[in-house]
Amino acid sequence: MLMHKSGDIATTKPVVPIPSGMPEVDALADAFAVMGAVMRFEHNSEIFGEGEPADYFYRVVKGAVRTYKLLNDGRRQISAFHMAGDIFGLEAGAEHRFTADAIADTTVLVIKRSTLMALAARDSDIASGLWTQATGDLLRAQDHMLLLGRKNAHERVASFLLEMAERSAGLQSVELPMSRQDIADYLGLTIETVSRTLTLLESEAAIELPTSRRILLRDPAALRRLNA
Amino acid sequence: MLMHKSGDIATTKPVVPIPSGMPEVDALADAFAVMGAVMRFEHNSEIFGEGEPADYFYRVVKGAVRTYKLLNDGRRQISAFHMAGDIFGLEAGAEHRFTADAIADTTVLVIKRSTLMALAARDSDIASGLWTQATGDLLRAQDHMLLLGRKNAHERVASFLLEMAERSAGLQSVELPMSRQDIADYLGLTIETVSRTLTLLESEAAIELPTSRRILLRDPAALRRLNA
DNA sequence: CGGGATATTGATTGATTTCAATGTGAGTGG
DNA sequence: CCACTCACATTGAAATCAATCAATATCCCG
Question: Which residues are within 7 Å of strand C by their Cβ atom?
């Protein structure tokens, strides 16, 4: 069932060195490194779709992934962006509850759900890694609910920029892997509002926009103040 | 309970056939029943606060609980309502990431986090129960993000009513345990908008409001259509 | 019956969306 | 190298949905 649109490539599993040196031992990451198959997805291609069997778990090696849900009329809510090192695709049920696709050309490690679950039953480090992952996802989802339910556009964009800055480890300059439409669908706004708000933040000297994908945080404290 | 479709995933142990139509064995619920301490909280009292040590897990026996986050200026986002049978307070980290309080006079079972984690390390049914709980919470959080990010007031209220109806098992009549303010803070709206929208739904003959806490779903299909 | 909290309804404002151009930048082919 | 294109982003003007401000109305409980 590894029939994906554009992926489905190198499936003999060479052990790929894990990028992003994690400080602590991560049994889950190890499992991916040892047992995972490498797959590549090109920009905008679907990794899995809502409703498909959730037979695999994924770990981003390179690139970026968005996971989202759609309403029947096409409105989209991106629930998370997944960058290098992130795990996604975990499900309780048999089916994926959201769609995942590659924002940029992306490499992922894939591991069979059944394999990982079997491992978890024997290895409590794996089980606890899964637990940490799931509750961490939940934590982020709860923060995001607060943003979507209660923050205004200004605050949403500020929160987003700070989140991206933290995740790229460099607090000075951020290279965004996603389009304005993706940002809008993550923040529950329109592209126009995102664009206007970025311009506003620039006029407030909080940020600078050398290009549309690169953002310099000139005054992170100002952004943090907006973070409420 | 890792519910899979027919010939799905091979789990480590043989799957015990479950009597049809009967509730399945819930190791987590059992653990609470056997090892949990009973605690009572009266209407509007706090069960735990954001930032406090997360040393206990909870299961609602009677009553209802809201879990939420606050912004510094008091804006509140309720992330979930927990009714009889529901488990809440699970955390990956050492501290609670949200506040929980009793919506009505409420009885809960409390179990020490360390106790449950130790149990989980030995009993894979417990571990899998925790897993199911966490991913189930995540699933609901994702659906709620879609609601908060992309649905209009009409759709939010309709979704809410359907959710409550499902959870009270009776699709005809729903007794709401929470106030309009709670509903508003769950749906990311104001009390006025919730109130107006309910009135509107009544005028559309989709629902009836005998009292402010009791709602009759006259035309669930109409609500489902709004659910997008 | 009175009083306080909760809910509904009304009038108005305002933030964000929608509709509509215009601008920009990367890639292509002449 | 430049003109062209196409996708993406920004900016402007108008419309709209929900919030806010402001009265009532209703319920619950003494």
Answer: A 152-154, 188-190, 192-193, 196, 211-212; B 179-181, 191-192, 194-196, 198-199, 209, 212-213
Lowest-confidence region among A79-93, B115-129, B132-146: B115-129
Residue of B nearest to A99 (CA): B142
A139–chain B Cβ distance below 8 A for any pair: yes
pLDDT, mean of residues B78-102? 94
The size of chain B, in residues, is: 228
pLDDT digits (tens, 9 = 90+) for A149-164: 999 999 999 999 999 9
Chain C: nucleotides below 7 Å from protein CB are: 6-11, 15-20, 25-26
pLDDT of residue A134: 87
**Pairs of residues, one from chain A and one from chain B, whose beta carbons lie less than 8 Å apart:** 138
SS3 B94: coil
Q: What is the C-alpha separation between B226 and A191, in angstroms, rounded?
A: 25
pLDDT band at B20 (very low <50, low <70, confident <90, very high): very low
Structure token digits, residue B24: 């399945």
Residue B188's pLDDT band (boundaries 50, 70, 90)? very high
Amino acid at A115: T
CA of A200 to C1' of D6 (A): 28
Whole-angstrom distance, CA of residue B116 vs CA of residue B31? 8
Instruction: Using the predicted structure, report yes or no on whether residue A206 has a pLDDT greater than 70.
Output: yes
Rounded to an integer, what distance in angstroms lies between the CA atom of residue A194 and that of residue A200?
A: 10
Best interface-test mutation with B: which of A122, A145, A160, A186 has the largest number of B CBs within 10 A? A145
CA dist B171 and B160 (Å) reads 13
State the sign of the Cα–Cα–Cα–Cα dihedral A200, A206, A210, A214. Answer: negative
Protein residue at shortest CA distance from C1' of D18: B193
Which residue type is seen at A132? T
Asked whether the predicted pLDDT for residue A25 surpasses 80, the reply is no
> B-chain residues within 8 Å CB-CB of A146?
69, 71, 77, 79
pTM: 0.89
CA atoms in the 13 A half-sphere facing the CB of B92? 18
Query: d(Cα A140, Cα A194) in Å, to the nearest integer?
Result: 21
CA-based diameter of chain B, in Å? Answer: 56
Q: Is A195 helix (H, G, I), strand (E, B) or coil?
A: helix
As a whole number of angstroms, the distance between CA A227 and CA B72 comes to: 9
Give the distance, in angstroms, between the CA of residue B26 and the centroid of all CA atoms in the same chain.
17
